[in-house]
Write a structure and sequence with these properties.
With about 110 residues, the protein is mainly alpha-helical. The chain has helices at about 1-40, 45-75, 80-85. It is built from three helices and no strands. Helix 1 crosses helix 2 (about 45-75). The mean pLDDT is about 85.
């Protein structure tokens, strides 16, 4: 019974993570970006060397959250994420099931 219980808990945790991860990653990424930019604006001499990696990490987490949302739902939730992922370097990371149309005229 213990092994089945652990497997059920692991599957339940994986399902919960699959459900909440896109939103949570975008929210956490946004707050890291906001905190880093606020520190850079308020104390630029001290914050620029220390906060630039955090800023990059926040952008990366935010983009991973948008990628997970697009992978899960097949559409982009944000036009900003759509524009970022349509850049030449990131275009190859777009999930195959996702539509990449900017508007109805470009189809």
């Amino acid at each position: 019974m213990g092994l089945i219980w652990l497997a059920a808990i692991a599957i339940l945790a994986a399902m919960l993570l699959w459900w909440v991860f896109p939103f949570l990653a975008r929210l956490v990424g946004f707050f890291i970006i906001f905190d880093s930019l606020l520190a850079i604006v308020l104390t630029p001499a001290r914050a620029i060397p220390a906060r630039l990696p955090w800023l990059a990490l926040g952008v990366l987490i935010w983009l991973v959250g948008h990628w997970a949302w697009a992978f899960k739902h097949g559409i982009w939730d944000s036009r900003v994420a759509l524009r970022v992922f349509s850049l030449p370097g990131l275009r190859h990371l777009i999930p195959r099931s996702t539509l990449i149309y900017f508007d109805a005229d470009s189809r």
